[in-house]
Design a protein that fits this description.
This protein has 374 residues and is α/β, with parallel strands linked by helices. The protein has three domains: 58-203, P-loop containing nucleotide triphosphate hydrolases (Rossmann fold, 3-Layer(aba) Sandwich); 209-276, Helicase, Ruva Protein, domain 3, CATH 1.10.8; 286-350, Winged helix-like DNA-binding domain superfamily/Winged helix DNA-binding domain (Arc Repressor Mutant, subunit A, Orthogonal Bundle). Helix content is 42%, strand content 13%. A five-stranded parallel beta sheet has the order 2-3-6-1-7, covered by helices on one side. The longest helix has 18 residues, at 243-260. Mean pLDDT is 84; it is low at 1-18, 22-34 and 365-374. It binds adenosine-5'-triphosphate and magnesium ion. Adenosine-5'-triphosphate binds next to helix 1, helix 3 and helix 9.
């Protein structure tokens, strides 16, 4: 990855790692789950602001719309809302929409930022009535803070501990009613008492190609990119059912069309650009294929433990588990068995490999369909 020219257009948003010798530190993994400041700015600009402009997830949208409308009619704060699902499907977007629909301010923080109960107490005690508290990655919050949150969510009260040791006293502090919107990619990791405090849980699922095409049409308009329907359909079909990936690929195809074509995102530009960026015909990216290749070529199709598999592809187990695996399982490439992950017949076929004789590659995924993997 070194020696790329500094004005290489395909490095896109990641072109910031210019080293002293003019080479790049950045890799061109534009379709991975990482994001940087620029990326977040573009994402924010592309976020739908209201439920009515949010394409896809009809079930969650209808449910959410009902919960919010009922609260509005009662002139009360709605129940706490939990949004779960793989990365990039719209959890943060929906949290912002909840606040917008309620016409209430939103306070944004995340599990990793709350390492002590005191961090949470400070936030809770400063909430205004009806405010929305968005807790991203809520499964990564410290245990002690979790317990404080149960109480606050249920009784709108926190116990502020004053002093230390035997002389410490808990002073109860009443809170005005507010709404917690929690987001998690791993709802299975939430302790049951916390999960139970949410009156409504929306499970986001991968988008179909039609909804993704609608999202892309909107994004192309906002980015002032000229695009043909078949060009957008091509991108939609290769976006792993994920709007974040769809939007990112759109920007790469736009780059390609600007440099090699007339600036129009059409099917030919989409195909050429996606090939350049290692996104295959079914939308699998380098990480996805890396996982399948490791499974088939190094472990004879598995089963193999998640951590071993992650080491083989040079990624964190968590990345493999939350980013690559849910989609591979859902599309039937990867199977979760009690003894580890295994490649399905489809995986061997997709990689153009022949499964070793004598093994019967399982064809049906065994997971619970919610992307929860022990
Ligand atoms: N239904 C949708 N319509 C249009 N754009 C969407 C939709 N869902 C998500 N997006 C876009 O995809 C990007 C990622 O969405 P968002 O940040 O809400 O995902 P997320 O579920 O919070 O992901 P993560 O788990 O990584 O935090 C945003 O730019 C957003 O604009
Ligand atoms: Mg998010």
């Amino acid at each position: 990855m070194t020696g790329r020219s500094p004005d290489d257009p395909f490095l896109g948003e990641r072109a910031e790692g210019v080293l002293d010798d003019g080479s790049y530190e950045a890799t061109a993994r534009v379709v991975d789950a990482g994001s940087d400041a620029d990326e977040r700015t573009v994402e924010a600009a592309l976020r739908p602001r209201r439920l009515a402009e949010f394409p896809g997830q009809p079930r969650v949208r209808d449910q959410l719309s009902l919960v919010l409308e009922a609260a509005r009619r009662r002139d009360a704060v709605p129940d706490h809302i939990l949004l779960s699902g793989p990365p990039g499907l719209g959890k943060t977007t929906l949290a912002m929409i909840v606040a917008a629909e309620l016409e209430r301010p939103i306070r944004v923080t995340s599990g990793p930022a709350i390492q002590h109960a005191g961090d949470l107490a400070a936030i809770l005690s400063s909430l205004a009535e009806g405010e929305v508290l968005f807790l991203d990655e809520i499964h990564r919050m410290a245990r002690a803070a979790e317990e404080m949150l149960y109480l606050a969510m249920e009784d709108f009260r926190v116990d502020v501990i004053v002093g230390k040791g035997p002389g410490a006293t808990a002073i109860p502090l009443e809170l005005p009613p507010f709404t917690v919107v929690g987001a998690t990619t791993r709802s299975g990791l939430l302790p049951a008492p916390l999960r139970d405090r949410f009156g409504f849980t929306g499970h986001l699922d991968y988008y179909n190609a039609v909804d993704l095409a609608a999202i892309l049409t909107r994004s192309a308009r906002l980015l002032a990119v000229e695009a043909t329907d078949d060009g957008l359909a091509e991108i939609a079909g290769r976006s792993r059912g994920t709007p974040r990936i769809a939007n990112r690929l759109l920007r790469r195809v736009r780059d390609y069309a600007q440099v090699h074509g007339q600036g129009v995102v059409d099917r030919a530009a989409a195909q050429a650009a996606l090939e350049l960026f290692d996104v295959d015909g079914l939308g699998l990216d380098r990480l996805d294929r890396g996982v399948l290749e490791a499974l088939c070529k190094r472990f004879g199709g598995g089963p193999v433990g998640l951590s071993t598999l992650a080491v083989a592809v040079g990624e964190e187990a968590d990345t493999v588990e939350t980013v690559a695996e849910p989609y591979l399982v859902r599309e039937g490439f990867l199977v979760r068995t009690p003894r580890g992950r295994a490649a399905s017949a489809l995986a061997w076929e997709h990689l153009g490999l022949t499964p070793p004789s004598g093994t019967s590659a399982p064809t049906l995924p065994l997971d619970d369909g919610e992307g929860r993997f022990g």
